[in-house]
Structure formats: structure tokens, C-alpha cells
Amino acid sequence: MKLNLFIGFVLTGLSIFAQKNITIGHTSSIYSQILDEDRLLEIYLPKDYDTSTKNYPVLYLLDSFLNFRHAVASAEFLNFDNRIPEIIIVGIRNTHRVRDLTPESINLDPKQRERLGNVGGADNFIAFLEKELMPHIEKNYRTAPYKIISGHSLGGLFNVYSFLKHPELFNAYITISPSLWYPIDNINDGFDTIFPDPTKMKQAFYMTLATEIAGNMRGNIIKLGGDFENYINTNKNTSLRFKYHHMPEESHLSVGLPSVFFGLRYIFEPIIQFKRFKTKRAIMAQGGPKKAIENVLNHFDDASKTYGFEISNESALIDLGYDLLKIEDLKPYAVDVFKVNLKERPNSYDAYSLLGMAYENLGELQKAKDNYKIALDLVKKTGNFEWETYKADLDKIEKKIRVKTNKKH
Hints:
Number of helices: 16
Organism: Aquimarina algicola
Number of domains: 2
GO molecular function: hydrolase activity, acting on ester bonds
Largest sheet: 8 strands, mixed
Family: Belongs to the esterase D family.
Protein name: Esterase
CATH topology of the largest domain: Rossmann fold
InterPro entries: AB_hydrolase_fold (IPR029058), Esterase-like (IPR000801), Siderophore_Hydrolase_D (IPR052558), TPR-like_helical_dom_sf (IPR011990), TPR_rpt (IPR019734)
């Protein structure tokens, strides 16, 4: 009887947990006068969106039906690893995919035109993005002015076309195995002709290629990569960034997932990263530890103002704290760094844990214990499965305190 009752409780508990949905976004729609149709959107918002006042960069994702789930997973994981900021993702579902993603071209082979059917709507789709979708998203969500577009295959073709025609429309492009077998009429005009003022070029353009070998697609992609490299190398006053990433182990379909992951990482790399000064000489050259802390704070404050969204200084402060701990006569300043980190994020169990670690390194065991205790209390409230690690830190420091007390007696 007791066994049956126990099994009943277990099954009831499993049933309750099974009914809890896991959601990664919501759907919305917009009517486009330009396209004369409703367009379905899939929207991902950062987990703290509703409780924050922050503005967020936006990733506009083509072919959302195929790409939305893995793009959300990549964005969340990269943010968790402090590689990118939190972002909003706007997935755009297709209606007439070939129509929207292909430009009109006098060089399109008649047989290809007949095979593809309704082509040449890229200019209308650009107008929809610029004049309808972006204003709609900016009106309804807290967006930063930093915009990214990700396109795969024909979506990659669209990326290249829109970049060549309206490079200012997006700050960054993730262009995945673009279908450059389809002609873009001005692609051979040369970047110096298309972009006569290098100082205005500040975009990041990330492009991948999978196993494609048929036709002239591969050759055109490699040529385009060469055009980017030549333009950047020739014009030292440009801020245009470009990376070509060949992924021969991926298929034309599978290349989408790693491309979004590595593309987001590449785009935000210079924004998120901060040069480390690991040696005492390098730290003192900045004006000493306190000036080094000030430099970190100023750098990320300035970057946040420049890009229009909050860029976390957490990783840079942590790096500085660890570097100071390795320099014997500068170790006490590590506490100052981790105090600043805690002030910046007062509800972070990691911030308390790091401060405790700094105190422990200085032999201030009671202060270390106090911070480890707060860290453990906070982490338990989150349900983080690694709370036992924080418990181990507290147990270790309590043991050290007992040993030290016993020696005194």
C-alpha cells in the first residue's frame, strides 16, 4: 500500500513537471503595404527583458522557419559565455522566398528565370525591411541602433546584394553559403567604385562556404572575399571588417548553425574584448591598479554609448582581478577590483564568490567566509545545479578558520 502511494506521488510529480512548457519566443505579424501581404514574425527577447530597462541590438533572421531555434540557442549560449551581449532576434517567415531574396538582373539566364519563376523582388523586400519592419520593431521593443542580418543560401545572396546597394542598412552581416551562382549586376564594378568613401564603411561582414563545388558559386564567393580583402588592405582609413570562413565539413544545409554561432562571435569580438595588461610593468604603465580599474570602466562606458547598448565590463574586471592576484605586491588591489565588480552587479553570486576568493588569497578568512556564504545563499535561490561548488568553497574556508583558531589555542 505504501509503495503504491509512493509511486502515485512520483507519477503525479512527473505529470506536473511534464506540463511546464519551455518557450524560446513568441510569434507576431505585420501587414506590409509594400509587399501587400501579412508577414509572420518569430521574436526572441532576452530572459531579463521584462525586468530591465536596457536597449538591445537586433538580429534580423531570414528563413526563420529553419533558423530561429538554433539562432536563439547560439545567442543565449554566447551571452552566457560573455562572448556577445544580449540581443533581440526577429525571425522573418517566408511567403514567396525566391521573389523576396533575388534581385532583378539582366544577366540572369532565361532558363534559370523560367526555372525559378517569380524573381527580382529584392528591392521591394529591402524597402519592407527599412520602411516597415524596422520601424515596427523599434516602436514595439527596446532596440539599440545596432542591427545585424543573417541570410543563408538565397538569403546570403540577398545579404550581398543589400550590402552592395545599401551597406548602411545594417551594421553587420552574417552571410551563409550565398547563392552567388545567381548574378548581381554591379558585383564586378569593384569596391572602390561601389564604396568611394572608405571612411563611411564601418560594417562587419562574415561569410561562410560549405561543400558547394557545382557551377560558379564557389568561385564567385572566393572572388568576393578577395574584393573585401583588397579594399580593406588598400584603404587603411576604413573600419570595414571582413572574415571568410570555409567549412568544408558542412553541407549546404548544416553550415547554417555554426555560421550563426561563429558569425555572432566574430561581429561582437572587438566590442566585447578588452586588452589585458598581465604584467606589473604593463599595469603600472597605465598609472597603477586604480587607474587600470578606471580604464576598464571608462572603456566600456564609452563603448556602450558608441554602440547604443550596454556592454558588460564583467569579463575585463575579472581578468584584471586575476592578473593582480598573480603579482605579489599588487594582490591587495584585487579586492578593489572585485568590489567594483560586485558594485556593478550586486545580485550576482559569482561577484560575491570572486570577492571571497580575493579575501581568501590575502588571508582574510572571515571576510572570505562572509562573501562565500552570501554567494551560496544567492546561487541556491536560482536553482543552479552547480550550487555544490559554492558550498565546497564555504566548507573549505570554514575548515581553514577552525584550523587557524585551534592553533591559537
